[in-house]
Design a protein that fits this description.
Order of helices and strands: HEEEEEHEEH
Shape: globular
Strand order of the largest sheet: 5-4-3-2-6
Structural class: alpha+beta
Number of strands: 7
Largest sheet: 5 strands, antiparallel
Distance between the termini: 29 Å
Strand content: 25-35%
Length: 107
């Protein structure tokens, strides 16, 4: 699966474009099907030979930060499964996305 198609790349707001927005729009969701890691991308831009995202990451901790496409493409979960993009994810404000995420997991 291609994690970032040309169409998605063109629609994703540039880095820092939602800076200061208390409830930024989440545009993409990536996840590991064999663990609990999830990445919610709010922005992204070309960065030398890579593509850098900014968003909310749920893994060992929950935090806002940067992550790059090459890492998403190379990382494997504990069973060796690749990271996937949620094909059914629809852009929404972060507050709605995180509420739904936690409700789905009973958190």
């Amino acid at each position: 699966m291609e994690l970032l198609t040309a169409e998605l790349r063109a629609r994703l707001p540039a880095l820092y474009s939602q800076d200061g927005n208390r409830d930024p729009i989440v545009h993409l969701k990536f996840f590991t099907p064999d663990s609990n890691w999830t990445w919610f991308a709010t922005e992204g831009s070309e960065d030398e030979e890579d593509f850098r995202f900014f968003g909310y990451v749920i893994g060992f901790e929950e935090e806002w930060g940067y992550f790059v496409l090459s890492e998403l493409e190379s990382v494997r979960g504990p069973l060796g499964l690749a990271i996937e993009r949620d094909l059914y994810f629809r852009p929404a404000p972060f507050s709605e996305v995180i509420k739904q995420f936690r409700n789905e997991r009973g958190l």
